[in-house]
Sequence to fold (661 residues):
Amino acid sequence: MLKNRTIAWSLLTPSAAWLILFFVLPMIGMLILSLRPDMRGGPFQLGWLPTVKHYQNIITGEVYLPLLWLSIKVAFGVAMAATLLAYPLAYFLVFHAGRRSSFLLTLAILPFWTSYLLRIIAWKTMLGSNGLVNNLLIYLGLVEEPVRILLYSRLAVIVTLVYVWLPFVALPIFASLHRINPSFLEAAAILGASPWRSFFKVTLPLSLPGVIAGFFMVFIPTVGEYITPMLVGGTRSTLYGNIIELYFGDGANWPLGSAMSVVMLAGVLLLALVISRLVDLRRLVG
Amino acid sequence: MSQRTKDQNVFFVLILMLTFVLTACSGAAQPTSEPAATEATEALATEAPVQSGSLTVLEWAGYEIPEMWVDFGNTYPDANVTFNFGGSDPDIYGKVLAGSSEDIIHMYTPFLNFYVEEGLIQPLDTSKLTNWEKVPQGFKDACTIDGEVYCVPWDWGYSSILYRTDKIPEGVDSWEALMDAKYAGHISMWDDGPSAVSVGSYLKGYDETNLTDEQLEEIKQLWIEQRDKNLFYWVDEPALEEAISSGDVWVAYAWNGAFYRLLQAGVPVAYADPKEGRNSWIGQYAISTKAENYDLALAFLDSKLGEETATHLLVDYAYGHPIPEYFSVVEDPLLVQALSLDDPGILERTNFTVPISSANRDRFVEMWAEVKAAP
Fold:
């Protein structure tokens, strides 16, 4: 017993220490910062009176909460689209690609070997007025003037994000599909289930944990996304994360930025809680 | 795919990345390969005492090369100058605020007041600056807060309206062009609240240093209305330049560096001289309150105003230098055009960015956030 405990501690301590140092403590720091009236005296200044004025500002302001809601909707759309596109991909890799499946999976995640930023910048050269897509459209005679909706729009942000996340979602779905015992499918077939019926009654429910994991892996970071709107977005593509970035960056107003981050965190946690209540994870797994 | 081929691929990508990094470094290092001028500036050399010691400078990458402080290097060959870097004004300010202890700090006008408010920099004894009298009043004012001079102005440039002459043959003579429905979908504003407030103040005729809440609200509405005519808020200059040369953007808030590079690239562009006056940005050097060698730091600041240093700044980097009598070294006609050096009245017509208080900056940034986030 004692030995087990020692093993557990030695396995957990390094990662726990890392997370406490670089996740829990900064989070507490952010919470404290969000109660500061302003930045006077620098980040380590003591002796200020806590205030909730930044939270009041966010909650009573006309723009912040609607923008958070918009960002949640965009993230939901991106996560939904990425999941819907990734599922057939993972399904194909597991059930139809045969021996080549791991090679094809490697191809699918190949873009991750280059930097995220680099890939987004590559999208700009694809979607821009002088970009590949527009040149092709003009060459084919489909349009006369470059189509500008391709870049500088919310659509461009969504398209880029779905592209970036697609392989990420495919991985957990691939793993969960891979784990399905083939004899279940055989049993369904022997008992006379049509392929569609066995998909909806056996394959899909058994793969749902992977689907949900993939969905949240996209949804949660996308709510706070700011780089993509900055690079390929237009005037109306600002997301909640961009305003947080503005306050931490050029604005040099960390307390307000922290308060916005805390509000976002609370919002996302609340949503995840609601969704996990609606979709009973344990029942899915069990 | 086997583990070995995977490893080989990772290795290949690493090599590729390393190559990129190395090429990027050698590219950035090119301006330095030009041999540093060896002739010593005599004026400085004769009167300066032989002094050694060490200085640390919190600097922007690119300004650490010896050409950018050649007058100091010539006068104090034994002094040991070390550079640390920041990537942006908020970054540099954050570092100093958190206790970074460089002797000299390089910031831009909108941030100067923050340092003063927090007691991070000290007033300068301008009587010890041999080149101070050559500096025009506008540049001195940008360094002066409550009658005390806190910095030496150095690199500067304009902010004005850059436009495509083929798309807008009638030309642009007012900041109003950024709001003009005729150019809807082809306008690009810089993603910066204080600059948006400056432009709004010019258009409304308000005093940007003393805006009431109602006036700020009007400026906010101006930019909210502008938003659907604006294609995108630019963050980095290359993205803006690309959009202008591709024809997506016809009219933009821009710095003269972008104008110069587009001229060089042969894009048909002009840089407006708006009736409300251009805006401008000024880089400044200040001495930290923690500086141990005040006199040497002051000598460093003074030498930034020396002629040879100025020449390198003007010719190598195409940025402005505050002392007009050095401008004659610029021979490149495109650069003369980009800095408007052929227009003696331009500096009088330019609105030099004034230091703003942190309270005002918070208001301006919040206004800008509300413009960008408006439903």
